[in-house]
Amino acid sequence: MSDGKESTVLQKAGDRLSSITSTLTGTPTHQFPTFEQLPRVEGQPQGSLWGYFDTPSKHDEIGTLNLLTHDVVRRSSSEIRTGEHVQLDWCLENVQFPGFNRKQFEQKIVDMAPLGFASLDDELHINTQSGSQWDSLKHFAHQKSRMYYNGLSHEEATRTVTNGIHNWCERGGIVGRGVLVDWLTWYEKKHGDPPSAVSRHEIPVSELDEVLKYQGTTTRPGDILIVRSGYVRWHNFASPEERKKGTRDNSVAIGVANNETTVRWLYDHHFAAVAGDTVAFEAWPPPLHEGGWCLHEWLLTQWGTPIGEMWDLEALSKVCEREGRWSFFLTSAPLHVKGGIGSPPGAIAIF
């Protein structure tokens, strides 16, 4: 056998073994290059995944949700042991004072009695960025190029449904293994009073690693990473005056550090999605013009990784502490809107 044919046979055997291993372990079948080895994308920083999930018949619009294969979901279902379940959506009237001139939540009760029925409807008005939410892959662009995930221009994004949340719904929503990194509980036990949730405190990934070790939690490719930093708890106990001062009047919030170390850590872990209880997952405002390490640009734009924000993790934290485990089966059913830009997550953790 020639060296070329032998190499091909060995490569095929290696690929087959990798596929079998992935099936048995429940890990994604995708084999990622290192950050430095990713093909360069014109106009984008080194480390972009544009084109990686494309197939000959389809231009990808769901990014790292591709990691949630049937095998990964099936293995994730082994997290269900007690049947206890916790919804992670904050009540829709929160945040009480949305920033960025976003409209507050409104509910209108419609009495059907004039039509001869003892019946009620309701009409809701929400800005999908004003409370618990998913950010879709057309929410935030690479600011310098004004491009969204996988080459969608800002102009195209305003007039097409490309990269909308409907793509997630049409594949069956988001289902997989959730992992809570309860940074707030860890910090209070180790250091005492935590930093203010309405300060621009940056949580380094070295501390996320410490929390995972403290919890005895191991992450896997394709997991949904969820970080509790204390923002929802702060809002729950703040007065209306404190809430207004900390939100509408001052768009600053705690979050994961926005730097190169974080970007490489996130890439190396290959999460299917990330979420948290704070305004933007990352510390806000981000360093948009200071080195290019805004996590929205990397997660949403370069990799197609959905970001969940302002999730209510308070009850989840208590259940995890009581059960002594911080991983669970996670389901999420976003609003099925063609071209949707954001949505309440409809997220449930099942133990």
TrEMBL record:
Gene Ontology terms describing biological process: L-tryptophan catabolic process to kynurenine
Species the sequence originates in: Cryoendolithus antarcticus
SUPFAM superfamilies tied to this protein: Putative cyclase
InterPro entries xrefs: KFase/CYL (IPR007325), KFase_sf (IPR037175)
Assigned protein family: Belongs to the Cyclase 1 superfamily.
GO molecular function, one term: arylformamidase activity
Name used for this protein in its record: Cyclase
PANTHER family: CYCLASE, PTHR34861
